[in-house]
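ok so I'm stuck.
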Amino acid sequence: MAFALPSHAYDLQMLDRSVDRARDHGWVFGLPPGIVTEEWPLDPVSGYPLMHGFTLLLPSDYRVHGEDIVAVAFFATAPDHNDGGAPDDPEIRDAVMARPAHPRLARMTDILDYEYAAILLSKREYDGAFATPPAPLSLATAERPRWLDVGSAAAFHESALPYAKKMFASAPRADLAETRAIALQPRASDPNAGKAPRDEFNYRGEPTGYQPYYYYDGPDKRPENFRLHEWGKDHAQDHLGGTMRPSQAVPAMSPFYIEFEEYFGGYNFGGGNAQLDFKEMKFDWACG
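replied:
not stuck anymore, here's the structure
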C-alpha cells in the first residue's frame, strides 16, 4: 500500500491531569478503550493481563495503516514481573495463545523474553468505553501485579525513583482508570521527520538520510569533541517520529515510531527508554 511519509515529528507531553478526549491526543496509564475484555492480551509468561501503558491518538500523517486506524494502544509486562529474565511455562503460553485475540493485535518480545503488545484502534474503538481487564489464567502462579489492585499510575508512583516521581505534581489516585493526558506538539525543527532511524556505526543497509542528534567537532571522535546539534536541543524525550535518542544504539525502525521513557506508562527499562515501531510492529528498549 502506498502512503506518504510524515512531514513533521511531534513532541509528546504527559500532563498533570486526566484525559479529556475532546482535546487531548490520548492518555498514559489507565485502561485501553474500545476492546472487549476477552481480547485484552494476557502475558504468555505469567498468565496475567499485560499492563496498559498508553493509548496515543495518531495525527493524520502517521495513520500508516489507513485513515480509519486512528490510534495505537501499547501493553507491557508489569514492572514487578520484569526482573532478570522471563521464565517459560509452555502450559501457560499455550493457554494464552489459544485465547481469542483482537484482529489488529501484534505481540513482541524483548531481549529478556518478556512480552509486550500493541493494538491498532479504529476511531470507533478509540471513542469507546474503557475496557475491563480479564481475570488471570487459573494456571498463573506469579504474585499478582500491583497495577491490578491500584491502577498502573499509582503502582508506578509507589515504586518510582525520585527523578520519576517529579513527573507527577501529586500522587495519582488508586484507581484502574486513573490516567494522565497526552499533549502533542509539532517540533519546530527536526530534519529526521519522515526518515527511518539508523545507527551510522552498526547499520550496513541502504542509507535513509537520517542524521544523529550529535556530531564531533574535528576529526577525532573523542568525548571532549562531542557536540549536540542546535536543532535538537529543545526536543522532548517522549516523541512521535523524527530524531531518536535511545539510551544505547539506535534500533533500525520505520519513520512511524514512538520513543518513550519509563514514566510514560510505568515500566522497568533499567533507567533507560524504549521505541515502538507501529508500522512494522517492532519494539526495543535499552537500560540507561
